[in-house]
Design a protein that fits this description.
2 copies of one chain form a homodimer. By secondary structure, chain A is α/β, with parallel strands linked by helices. In chain A, α2 crosses α3. The longest helix of chain A has 19 residues. Chain A is elongated. The relative contact order of chain A is 0.12. Chains A and B meet through α3, α4, β2 and α5 of A and α3, α4, β2 and α5 of B.
Chain lengths: 345, 345
């Protein structure tokens, strides 16, 4: 090891060069704490030498349990790799604190940009100072599925209004008039968009409650389906595919069949949506297009930290009709014609 | 901003304090490069001040496309969170280089430990110097599903021998004698373990080839199933659930039915394995127990970098019998008794 190197480590660790030498050569008789100091200093310097990777991008997803989030992370990594950029992934365990910590880790790694999927930028209220901190450091932000008016960055979202219009149209074509909506946290942008579109299409002034707010999990779908069936619904649009599989179980728990008695529509089109029994009719998020747009945004020239720009992009979803939706019982009885102009796989 | 702070940044960036002040206060007329230098210096110092998180753990998975890997990452994150440790996740895109880069990122973040799922430690040969580098830095290593004799660390693997014994036993109980095995890369430890166990149980000296090496994907399962069916197999044990869904499609592509004509066994028990049609009979990896063991290993006292220890842990899998396996056609014809002592959900 070069003499200058020993000197640097000694200086950083605040010990003598001979101590450094003894620690690095595994000699006995050095206090644990001193050993640790020296090792840390050596590590810091050696990795400073390796240098930051130029094009490292941080990807933050809520969790990796919901397959749509792992699909996002996987797709973003692949698209970044194609553009010679490396990816580091964090989840945001339980609350803003986790998101702040993840952002700080990204900063320490010297990332060029950060992609956040369904983060706090999707919340109607709540702190986003940590997002502004990134922008202030000249870091590009791509924010997926959520819009905050009071924040700069590139916002890329699935067009939830179009999604609800497609789903409601599909179900009405099948003869359904009692259509319910099963969603998670009502304070997020995607949920509010869906509700707004839904209330424009469906008469919600009746006594029956047509929207159930639970959460986007299997259990959430199960509970929501039972609640909506008790309100007389014959079709349920869910906020995620995971939720839709729970809804199917919820329908069955009341002795009814999907799609004979009740139609269920999912959201996302995760990889296994075509494998379930019955295969899920769902709204496919255009993850490939959205991912490409996000990668382009984060690898663009660094943001001007004085005047960070704001861009909004809405990407239309696609209705994928499979087996979990079918003609309503009433339309089958009356023999009323059912149009079949929706895309079938 | 305190004067000392300006001075530190100026020193680090190699510019005057007034330049630092002008950049940080967004004054005009500073060259782009200088601005960048100053911002980087300010960032480095501010994040040095924030300090490393004490208990940060790096998790490296091959990708997040295969649901078993996202399940691993999700579970490890949850278990680490419970022990007040934070997680940073990396994938290893295409080859050793990606793994080395990920390790360096973890080092730069000052991680306390690293968990590697199905990494290069599972390869029979190939470079593992970057693993030794981590150990040399006093970083704890937990290495999932793969064993290298020439490497220290805590190795935690599903017992593949037990897995094959369970699967073969289950299929033989159902009357199958023509059993094939569909696997990926034959140079990895888990694959070699499975093959060894399989060859002890099945007579592979016949003309028919009973093992197909493709890869662990849907396409790999499709191809392997068609190959094994042409060799006269009536049951196929796959190396992953994703592969098993491909195998089912492969069986159907030859005009045959699962499980009437051919039985298919998966591996992993991913979250959607019970939702497929037919629901997958599979070998469940005990991810919860293995994850807890890995977390315990990486949060233990730092390894003695002079004499890193080596531990091996084998965790038994469980056979989960669902709908993709059934009595063999020949046993149904002859009416021979089929024992039914395997666990059914």
């Amino acid at each position: 090891m070069a003499r200058t190197r020993l000197k640097d480590i000694a200086q950083r660790a605040g010990v003598s060069e001979s101590t450094v030498s003894r620690v690095l050569n595994h000699r006995e008789g050095i206090a644990e704490d001193t050993q640790r100091l020296v090792r840390e200093a050596a590590r810091a310097l050696s990795h400073h030498a390796v240098g930051d990777e130029d094009d490292l991008v941080g990807v933050l997803v809520p969790d990796l349990e919901n397959p749509i989030f792992s699909q996002w992370a996987d797709r973003l990594e692949a698209d970044l790799f194609q553009r010679d950029a490396a990816t580091i992934i964090a989840t945001r365990p339980r609350g803003t604190k986790g998101e702040q910590h993840a952002f700080h880790r990204f900063l320490r790694l010297g990332v060029r940009g950060v992609v956040v999927v369904s983060g706090f930028h999707a919340q109607q209220h709540g702190p986003v100072a940590h997002y502004r901190e990134l922008l202030g450091e000249g870091i590009n932000l791509a924010l997926i599925n959520g819009v905050r008016e009071d924040l700069a960055g590139t916002f890329i979202s699935t067009d939830d209004v179009a999604a609800i219009e497609l789903a409601v149209g599909h179900l009405q074509d099948l003869g359904h008039s009692q259509i319910g909506l099963a969603l998670g946290d009502e304070h997020t942008w995607p949920v509010r968009q869906k509700v707004r579109a839904f209330e424009r299409l469906i008469d919600v002034s009746t006594a029956a409650r047509t929207i159930a707010y639970t959460d986007f999990s299997y259990a959430g779908g199960y509970e929501a389906a039972r609640e909506l069936l008790r309100q007389g619904m014959s079709a349920i649009i869910c906020g995620s595919d995971v939720m839709a599989t729970g809804a199917i179980a919820g329908v069955r728990s009341l002795g009814k069949d999907v799609p004979r008695d009740v139609s269920v529509v999912g959201f996302d089109d995760v990889s296994w949506a075509r494998l379930t029994s019955p295969a899920l009719t769902t709204l496919r998020q255009d993850v490939p297009q959205m991912s490409r747009a996000a990668v382009q945004a984060v690898l663009a020239s660094p943001v001007d930290s004085r005047r960070p720009e704001r861009t909004e992009l809405l990407v239309p979803p696609q209705l994928v009709a499979r087996e979990s939706t079918g003609a309503s019982a009433s339309s089958r009885r009356t023999g009323s014609p059912v149009s079949a102009d929706t895309m079938r796989e």
